[in-house]
Design goal:
mainly beta, 120 residues, 7-stranded mixed β-sheet, single chain
Length: 120
Amino acid sequence: QVQLVESGGGLVQPGGSLRLSCAASGSIFRVYSMAWYRQAPGQQRELVAGITSGGSTNYADSVKGRFTISRDNAKNTVYLQMNSLKPEDTALYYCNGVLDVGGGRPTSYWGQGTQVTVSS
């Protein structure tokens, strides 16, 4: 059974920082890519940042220069360092992993989400 477990969310003041973590566990043969998405109330889920197995990254325009995605391949863990947080960053943040859990076919898995609230 494969699980993605996020941690690190919370309440922070505007201008503050948070670091999210997401660990993938279970019978995983290969991690193709991992990413962070977010969903604010009444809005669609959107991609925040992604990272490939080779370390290539991409970011939403709204977070470029403020957020940094990284991964530890040995631990099947992805991180999201969020700096200079704004109230509009408030959302439920989800971890996504594209994994090979057997058979050589990439499959998408989601974590349960962690709440980030930016407010004074």
